[in-house]
Amino acid sequence: MRLLGRGVCCVRGGREVFSGLDFEAASGEALAVTGPNGSGKTSLLRLIAGLLAVSGGSIGLEGGEAELSLPEQAHYLGHRDALKPALSVMENLAFWRDFLGAGAGASDGLAAVGLDHAGQLPAAFLSAGQRRRLSIARLLAVRRPVWLLDEPTNALDTAGQSLFAGVMRDHLARGGLIIAATHAPLGLQAKELRIGGAS
User: Fold this and answer.
1) How far is 122 from 129, CA to CA, in rounded Å?
2) Rounded to whole angstroms, how far apart are CA atoms 196 and 198?
3) How crowded is the C-beta side of 83, counted as CA atoms within 13 Å?
4) Strand-pair category, 74-77 with 177-181
5) Distances from the Cα of 99 to the Cα of 36, 91, 159, 161, angstroms
6) Cα–Cα nearest to 147, from 30, 42, 50, 1
7) Environment class of residue 27 by beta-carbon count within 10 Å: exposed (0-12), middle (13-18) or buried (19+)?
8) Number of other CB atoms surrounding residue 109 within 10 Å
9) Which terminal Cβ of the chain has fewer Cβ within 10 Å, N or C?
């Protein structure tokens, strides 16, 4: 499986963010997207996820499920943790599992990120790092081969970063691929795609 971008152009609010961008990641590979604030790292992830329209060039997935679109085979983990504070930790994860499609049990995902003890707590009670861990558990509750991660280690302490690095390595070992916009080391071997520009 390969995720390919050729001559990709992004225009937002009438301004060209970047153009002529080429990138590639194959099964078992991670691609770290780096660059200054405002250079288009988040925009690139949103283009791949189908949340923004490509203004030029092409993005495609080779070797995936033929009947599914790229966004249907991808998880997008953005800056904000998409949680419902009134729901419990377990209910939040079950919501995402049901919304995205049948997958592993919610409790398995919580155990993998060290939150199995907090399953009945309202999400509103979680710390920023715990909220991030719960968002990461969503990646495990429904398996998808492409992970699009925007500053994934934000709010994670050293132990959380190490745990997440292990989760990412397991995903790659299963044949998945990762595109991560980051200013910090991911804790795993990754190719680098630098996007230039100023904010």
Assistant:
1) 15
2) 7
3) 29
4) unpaired
5) 34, 12, 30, 27
6) 30
7) middle
8) 27
9) C
Residue 77, pLDDT above cutoff 50? yes
What angle, 0 to 180 degrees and rounded to 10, lies between the N-to-C axes of helices 128-141 and 158-173?
10
| Euclidean distance between the first and the last CA atom of the chain, given in angstroms as a whole number | 34
Q: How confident is the model at residue 104 (pLDDT cuts 50, 70, 90)?
A: low
As a whole number, mean pLDDT of residues 92-106 equals: 74
pTM reported for the whole predicted model: 0.90
Query: What angle, rounded to 10 degrees, do the helices at 89-100 and 128-141 form?
Result: 30
In terms of phi and psi (left: phi > 0; alpha: psi -120 to 50; beta: otherwise), the region of 40 is: left
Count Cα atoms within 13 angstroms, Cβ side, for 170.
Answer: 12
Nearest-angstrom CA–CA distance, 156 and 186: 12
